[in-house]
Amino acid sequence: MSSYPIDSVGLVTPQRMAFNTPLPLACGKSLAEYELVYETYGELNASASNAILICHALSGHHHAAGYHSEDERKPGWWDSCIGPGKPIDTRRFFVVSLNNLGGCHGSTGPSSVNPQTGKPWGGSFPVVTVEDWVHSQARLADALGIRQWAAVVGGSLGGMQALQWAISYPERIRHCVAIATAPKLSAQNIAFNEVARQAILTDPDFHHGEYNAFGVIPKRGLMLARMIGHITYLSDDSMGAKFGRELRSERLNYDLTSVEFQVESYLRYQGEEFSGRFDADTYLLMTKALDYFDPAARHDGDLAKTFAAVQADFMLMSFTTDWRFSPARSREIVNALLAARKGVSYLEIEAAQGHDAFLLPIPRYLQAFTGYMNRIEVD
Question: Which SUPFAM superfamilies does the entry mention (predicted)?
């Protein structure tokens, strides 16, 4: 008898796909060869009409659902939404989740060996964009025998990829589900990303991105970057409810260097944990991809014109306390789709958890998500 919950996809094994055809990149460079690591859940039907692509956010990866071993304590990062009877129901859909190019969880990235030098790419890994990721994902779809996705789904940076899919490959996507996302970053968002990058770039152990050659990592910079980011993913209400002004001890220490408040301890723990599992060069790449995303730039900023050729139906969801990707940004997308006379559904969900809400099992969110996915027809 399985030890996993009945709504879990259970034990999953990552897979690896190698590509030897050069991939041109928006930066003007190309990757002569590369690998993508991915996982699949469910079964591809005979007509290959039930495939769903999951696109991850900044610090995400291919492990979206299930468990890698019997001993794994936490399931994949979106396990609340993927599995039997969940919004992305693996009894109906064949789900593909990958680690993007430039990542640090198996796909070719800065920590991979550059075949031309025999050394890790490090800081010389080329800058990649959301559009580059979508082109690489299209090649993965080809290799898997998937001509058209039933839906491309993602939150935050993942939602940007879903939007780009609808724009770049209109005939290859029937539904676009973009959650807690934006048509481009605001100046404030770019500013937060730059502060995080500067924390890494100015760490004495960064060594221009070649820290692996020195046997070190820019741990302090990566910790600070994560702490900055984490603050923006939560709402004031959620931080207040979780920590308030609670002290770690009974009284103030009047010490400028001590950790006195519980929220300070929490942020330091998050930074410490993150610095042990994520690559600094990858963090720089991912935040730049966020900054550069602006598909309407090719149409003089006209988002409706950008969506003129899309064929997919859209589902947009946002969360009331998300100030990093506010509901107003989702409404920009909705209004542009309506102006372009495209099919779009939209729901703004009352939630106290801020940007992180898209990762959490909030009942109204799961209900709406399930309702939309159940509308998707498969042969």
Answer: alpha/beta-Hydrolases
Q: What is the pLDDT of residue 255?
A: 67
272-305: pLDDT as tens digits: 998 999 999 999 999 999 999 999 999 999 999 9
Tell me if residue 111 is catalytic: no
Domain 15-184+294-374 has CATH 3.40.50.2300: no
Give the pLDDT confidence score for residue 2 in this predicted structure. Answer: 59
pLDDT tier at 377, thresholds 50, 70, 90? very high
Reply yes or no on whether 291 is catalytic: no
What does pLDDT average to over the chain?
A: 94
Q: What is the mean pLDDT of residues 106-134?
A: 96
* Tens digit of each residue's pLDDT (9 = 90 or more) over 251-263: 777 766 677 778 7
Q: Are 327 and 320 in contact (CB under 8 A)?
A: yes
Domain boundaries, the chain: 15-184+294-374, 189-288
55: left (phi over 0), alpha (psi -120 to 50) or beta: beta
Of 156, 235, 275, 326, which one is the catalytic site residue? 156
Instruction: Check whether 356 is labelled as a binding-site residue.
Output: yes
User: Tell me, what's the pLDDT at 267?
Assistant: 86
Identified catalytic residue from 79, 322, 326, 330 = 322
Q: Which of 61, 62, 175, 355 is catalytic?
A: 355
User: Is residue 350 a contact partner of residue 338, using CB atoms and an 8 Å limit?
Assistant: no
264 burial class (0-12, 13-18, 19+ CB within 10 angstroms)?
middle
**β partners of residue 178:** 154, 316
Catalytic site includes residue 355: yes
Report the 10 Å Cβ neighbour count for 367. Answer: 13
d(CA 126, CA 143): 24
User: What fold is seen in the domain 189-288?
Assistant: Rna Polymerase Sigma Factor; Chain: A (1.10.1740)
- Band the pLDDT of 265: cuts 50, 70, 90: confident
Q: Under 8 Å CB-to-CB from 63, ≥6 apart: which residues?
A: 12, 14, 39, 76, 77, 97, 105
15-19/34-41 β-pairing: antiparallel
- Rounded to two decimals, what is the model's pTM? 0.95
Query: Amino acid letter at 133?
Result: W
